């Protein structure tokens, strides 16, 4: 850490951020009018700190849960309905069928039978035969991949039994943000409800006895004006390039660990960076999103759409801030980062917290990662968390936020979930990470690491395909690209040219690695495998009969896309080397 970075980190205090955490701990931010009050509170604090802020007011599509219940055998069970569930305020009754979920799939967004159900069901045909015309009961949280599969199988409803005493809020739509006309067919057409573990066990007995259940859900749906505060901190020399730092401020109930602590982190970083803007070599935009919880990332999606061309031209990285500063969160063993930013992230964390455990993970299709189709290098989603050993000692199940505290997405996410010391540390980590993108003359992205990731992915797919597909063209194109970027990163290339190439490469490589749809659209909200255009290769060896021919056709088309993209990326690099 250099002297400038140390001076900047030394300016961080908890005065403004902790006051916001305490205020938000008394301020629900779920209903649309509550959310807008939260935005006004953020804006007022920014203005009091002398930081200019713009309040955008888009109309975004929300589906806000109002009430839910599950009834069976004369008993009514406490329940919640995920956002975007089909409203059935009069109730929907059908026979109940139980399928045991894969216990490792609590946080899975994979739309895959094996990932969701382990060895419980072997095929789509078996699933359809068991579920058609019935309400499915299984373990887990509100899950868009699960809900869409059950609907596809002809099921008429889903009950997800959460793993503990609490009932968690969630979402069940695969639509990312406000739907467009092409998205509307994927709007959920069945209701979903979540119950706690004990209720789930009681309902399993009903299913075993051949009984029925009734799901009742009520939601408020439609376009709603929601405020989105954005701070724009310019570069000292007027450079139009910027880093986007962001997180959601709407929450379930008061949502302290998810995400009042993140809102406070953004507030303090805005204060410090604005006070030191004369020393910034690249700009920073800091955004607080509405519509994360009840619009499936509708706020960040709106921004990605409304400012798409500016983001394409000038955004060098996006950094998500969700659930920092929570109690017991001393570990960084599962930090989301793309390959090109991994070393940057590791160094920033260990420079602030040298004794912390660090490990990285491929970003999931979740958490306001609304910019992958544009092609922006990205890191962070969830922040620090409790060590796995501590989670096991406490008997906690796996959740997607709150530093691993199982208060996540419940009414229990209150002030005791936040930790002052953890918050101070995490603010400094986020600030240092931002500085390490804004300040270097050459953008600190290791594209060789991305090329090596691609080479490993292609090799795995080639091995899995066996003799059913020839991935030699992909292997060769990847090797040529890797050699070119290695020469770029070690060669004597002017910084401005290297930076332009790094950003242009991200516009090719990020969509190729994380998306299936065209640029400037938004993929469905379930996790894509690495290099999704080639991923069918992993399934070829077990494809039955005629289906193998269809899969080979998909493989051929996907490989054409991949090789063409690799050639375009290689040409960009070679032109910079000339």
UniProtKB/TrEMBL annotation:
Entries under InterPro entries matching the protein: Peptidase_M28 (IPR007484)
Protein name per Swiss-Prot or TrEMBL: M28 family peptidase
Pfam families to which the protein is assigned, alphabetical: Peptidase_M28
Organism: Falsiroseomonas selenitidurans
Location of the Peptidase M28 domain: 232-423
TM helices/strands, residue ranges: none
């Amino acid at each position: 850490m250099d002297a400038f970075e140390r001076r900047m980190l030394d300016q961080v205090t908890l005065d403004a951020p902790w006051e916001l955490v305490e205020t938000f701990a008394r301020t629900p931010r779920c209903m649309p009018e509550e959310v807008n009050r939260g935005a006004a509170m953020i804006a007022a604090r920014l203005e009091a700190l002398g930081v200019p802020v713009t309040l955008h007011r888009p109309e975004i599509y929300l589906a806000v849960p109002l009430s839910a219940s599950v009834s069976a055998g004369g008993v009514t069970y406490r329940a919640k309905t995920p956002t975007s569930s089909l409203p059935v305020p009069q109730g929907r009754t059908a026979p109940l069928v139980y399928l045991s979920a894969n216990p490792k799939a609590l946080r899975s967004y994979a739309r895959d039978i094996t990932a969701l159900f382990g060895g419980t069901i072997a095929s789509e045909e078996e699933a359809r035969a068991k579920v058609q015309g019935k309400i499915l009961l299984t373990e887990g949280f509100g899950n868009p991949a699960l809900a869409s599969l059950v609907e596809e199988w002809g099921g008429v409803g889903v009950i997800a039994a959460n793993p503990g005493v609490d009932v968690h809020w969630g979402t069940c739509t695969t639509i990312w943000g406000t739907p467009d006309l092409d998205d509307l067919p994927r709007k959920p057409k069945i209701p979903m409800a979540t119950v706690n573990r004990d209720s789930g066990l009681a309902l399993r007995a009903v299913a075993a006895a051949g009984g029925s259940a009734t799901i009742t859900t009520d939601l408020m749906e439609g376009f709603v004006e929601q405020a989105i505060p954005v701070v724009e901190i310019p570069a000292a020399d007027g450079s139009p390039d910027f880093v986007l730092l962001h997180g959601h401020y709407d929450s379930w109930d008061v949502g302290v660990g998810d995400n009042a602590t993140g809102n406070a982190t953004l507030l303090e970083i805005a204060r410090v960076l604005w006070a030191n803007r004369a020393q910034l070599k690249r700009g920073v935009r800091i955004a607080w999103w509405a519509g994360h919880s009840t619009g499936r990332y509708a706020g960040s999606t709106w921004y990605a759409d409304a400012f798409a061309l500016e983001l394409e031209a000038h955004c060098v990285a996006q950094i998500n801030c969700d659930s920092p500063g929570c109690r017991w969160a001393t570990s960084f063993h599962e930090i989301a980062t793309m390959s090109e930013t991994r070393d940057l992230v590791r160094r920033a964390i260990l420079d602030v917290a040298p004794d912390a455990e660090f490990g990285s993970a491929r970003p999931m299709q979740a958490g306001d990662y609304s910019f992958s189709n544009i092609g922006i290098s990205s890191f962070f989603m969830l922040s620090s968390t409790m060590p796995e050993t501590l989670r096991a000692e406490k008997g906690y199940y796996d959740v997607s936020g709150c530093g691993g505290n199982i208060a996540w997405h419940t009414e229990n996410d209150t002030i005791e979930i936040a930790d002052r010391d953890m918050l101070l540390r995490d603010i400094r980590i986020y600030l240092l990470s931002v500085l390490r993108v804004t300040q270097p003359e050459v953008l600190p992205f290791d594209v060789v690491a991305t090329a090596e990731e691609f080479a490993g992915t292609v090799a795995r797919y080639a091995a899995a395909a066996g003799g059913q597909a020839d991935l030699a063209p992909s292997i060769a194109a990847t090797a040529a690209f890797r050699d070119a970027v290695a020469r770029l990163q070690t060669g004597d290339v002017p910084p401005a040219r290297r930076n332009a190439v790094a950003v242009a490469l991200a516009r090719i490589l990020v969509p190729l690695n994380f998306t299936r749809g065209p640029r400037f659209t938004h993929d469905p909200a379930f996790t894509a495998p690495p290099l999704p255009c080639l991923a069918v290769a992993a399934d070829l060896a077990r494809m039955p009969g005629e289906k193998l021919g269809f899969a080979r056709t998909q493989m051929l088309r996907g490989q054409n896309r991949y090789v063409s993209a690799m050639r375009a990326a290689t040409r960009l690099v070679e032109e910079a080397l000339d």
